[in-house]
Amino acid sequence: MRRRLLFLYVLLLLFLNLSPKVPSSPVANGDKLVHLLEFSALGILGWRWWAYLLPLPFLLEFLQLFVPGRTFSFADMAANLIGFTLGLIAGWWYEGRDEGAPLFHEGRD
C-alpha cells in the first residue's frame, strides 16, 4: 500500500513540477514554501527508499528548463532538497520511534 501511495505521489510531483501553468503565490517567495512542503511529504512517504528518490529534488527542477513557462531556480532546488531531508528525518523518526533500544534502562542504577 505504501509503495502505491508513494508511486502516485511521485506522479503527482511530476505533474505539478513539469506542467507549463504555474500558479502565482500571493505571498512573496511562497513557491519556496510549496516546494519545501511537497518534498517533505515525499521524504515522509519514501524514507525507506531515499537512495532511489534522492535525484528527484534535483531532477525535477532541472527538467523545468525544458518546460515552456517554467524556469530553473537554485533557490527552488534548495527548498526541494531541504524539504526532502526534513521529510526523511520525520519519516525515519516516526517509523522507528518504537524500535531500538530505550534511552533509559529501567531497573539499572
Structural summary, described in words:
The protein is an all-alpha fold and 109 residues long. It has one domain. Helix content is 63%, strand content 0%. The protein has 5 helices and no strands. Helix 2 runs parallel beside helix 5 (74-96) and helix 4 packs antiparallel against helix 5. The longest helix is centred in the last third of the chain and has 23 residues, at 74-96. The protein is globular, with a radius of gyration of 17 Å. It starts with a helix and ends in a 13-residue tail after the last helix. 22% of the residues are buried. The model has no long low-confidence stretch (mean pLDDT 86). Keywords: Membrane, Transmembrane, Transmembrane helix. Pfam families: VanZ. This is VanZ-like domain-containing protein.
Short description, anyone?
The chain has helices at 2-18, 30-45, 50-53, 55-63, 74-96. The chain has 109 residues and is an all-alpha fold. It has one domain (2-18, 29-96).
Which secondary-structure class do the elements indicate? Answer: mainly alpha
Q: For the report, how would you describe the main beta sheet?
A: none
Molecular shape:
globular
Amount of helix: 55-70%
Strand content: under 5%
Low-pLDDT regions: none
Number of helices: 5
Query: What does the average pLDDT come to?
Result: 86
- Number of β-strand runs: 0
Radius of gyration: 17 Å
Q: What is the H-and-E element order? A: HHHHH
Number of domains: 1
Euclidean distance between termini CA atoms: 44 Å
Domain VanZ-like: 30-90
Pfam family, one: VanZ
Protein name: VanZ-like domain-containing protein
Organism: Thermococcus radiotolerans
